[in-house]
Amino acid sequence: MFGNISRRALARLLGGSAAAATLPNLVSESGAQTPAERVAGHRSFPPGFLWGSATASYQVEGAVHEGGRGLSIWDTFSHMPGKVDNGDTGDVADDFYHRYREDIQLMKNLGLKSFRFSVAWTRIFPNGTGAPNQQGVDFYLRLTDALLEAGIQPFCTLYHWDLPQVLQDRGGWENHDTAKAFADYAGYTVSKLGDRVKHYMTMNELRTFVEVGNQEGRHAPGLKLSRGRLAQLTHHVVLGHGMAVQAIRANAPAGTKVGVAENPVATTPVIESQEHIEAARKAFREENAMYLTVIKEGRYTEQYLKRLGSDAPKFTAEDLRIISSPMDFVGTNVYQPAYVRADANERGYAMAPPPASYPHMYSPWLTIGPEALYWVPKLVSELWDVREIYITENGTSSTDTIAADGHIYDTDRVMFLRNYLTQLQRAVSEGVPVRGYFLWSLLDNFEWADGYDKRFGITYVDLHTQKRTPKLSAKFYAEVIRTSRVA
């Protein structure tokens, strides 16, 4: 069928318009490979690539009043009228606290090599500081033991937005002491899990919990801070990250790896020409100035400080040294692009927002731009010489319903994943050091202010019975994992 087809025409058949430029020469002089083998090679990932999935404590665990757990800001926020769609809360969620063994069997059935979970700070320290709670420690020991018994490598996130309410009552991340409390919690947790867990992420999506929770007020704790207060809070957050890196180093066994899971502004050239690519590179560094850039460079950019003026955060040289404590890897959560074009302005770039008619998934914010999964790891690697990158989240919501035959045919999610993974394979094939991919999410779960309406899982969860039903996308992902190629 493919005997006389051109490389560019074959790229079109593969569904990867952007892949044409990177498509390897599929015609060997010996003619040893079949056309199917050539296509498979083009879409394949290297041996040892780590395929996983991810969840977060408040989104799946439930059991909020069990095991000595204290209250977090999301317990408080979700019970405030009008804050979460349909009045949903995480009180029960997916009942993962009781059903984790059942869910680990789901992971085994999929063939997952790794599972990214988060520890609930208030299960370890119910009041944020003070005496630890052994019941909470024991739960995560049982969880990680069960994962390892199943041959699944645990990746642990130490903060996925569930700040202890007691600490919020003392000022939350606006209070410098919260950074120290976080580091103490991180160090203690790692001292207990360190013989089981070898990869830790300090925090998940700094930008989201800072800005959506403390500027826009749509997430916990529901604040709308002034620009100056927000800038200082942001500084305390990245300082807490750096202090946690140091605490993990001090308490973890040799060979432990530490990173962060950030959702950077995914600057993507609107046209893949040199001028627009360079603009995207400049934009990536500047648009992420207060998060990944200061973490990797140990300084705030001149443009960032100039833009804030008198609202710039107060900091010391020692703060910057701590913030930039060396990491072993960078995790990036990638969902949508931020298109960038070259411009003659002072910054050298301008944002090119998509029009209202641009296609998006069931979550209105999730505009479809698969090439973001190529450009984010590429720019992270090039800007800061990062040698180990993980895609710590990628996935989509969908209007999932159970068909008459009992199946869930989430074809839109399958196509979303296929297109995004094709772009990730493009990056990996060019030598971008992406070592693994964590699909969001294993289960339908509590999607923050959207409640349970926006289903991100590849496993359907009946919230009334807690029955789990793998969707079509689960079968797709299982095939990706089995063959380590875009299915």
Write a structural description.
The protein is α/β, with parallel strands linked by helices and 487 residues long. It has a single domain (50-483), classed as TIM Barrel (Alpha-Beta Barrel), CATH 3.20.20.80. Helix content is 41%, strand content 12%. It contains 18 helices and 13 strands. The protein has helices at residues 7-13, 35-42, 57-60, 73-78, 96-110, 121-124, 134-149, 165-169, 176-193, 206-214, 227-251, 274-287, 289-297, 302-308, 317-323, 372-384, 411-429, 472-483; strands at residues 50-54, 114-118, 153-157, 199-204, 257-262, 267-269, 330-333, 338-342, 349-351, 389-393, 434-439, 459-461, 468-470. The strands form three sheets. It has an eight-stranded parallel β-barrel, surrounded by five helices. Strands 6-8-9 form a three-stranded mixed sheet. Strands 12-13 form a two-stranded antiparallel ribbon. Helix 10 (206-214) runs antiparallel to helix 11 (227-251) and helix 12 (274-287) crosses helix 13. The chain starts with 6 loop residues before the first helix and ends with a helix. The model is unreliable at 1-35 (pLDDT under 50).
| Main sheet record | 8 strands, parallel, barrel
What global shape is seen? globular
For the record, the CATH class is Alpha Beta
- Class from helix and strand fractions: alpha/beta
Uncertain spans, ≥5 residues at pLDDT below 50?
1-35
CATH architecture: Alpha-Beta Barrel
GO molecular function, one term: beta-glucosidase activity
Active site: 205 (proton donor), 393 (nucleophile)
Keywords: Carbohydrate metabolism, Cellulose degradation, Glycosidase, Hydrolase, Polysaccharide degradation, Signal
Signal peptide: 1-20
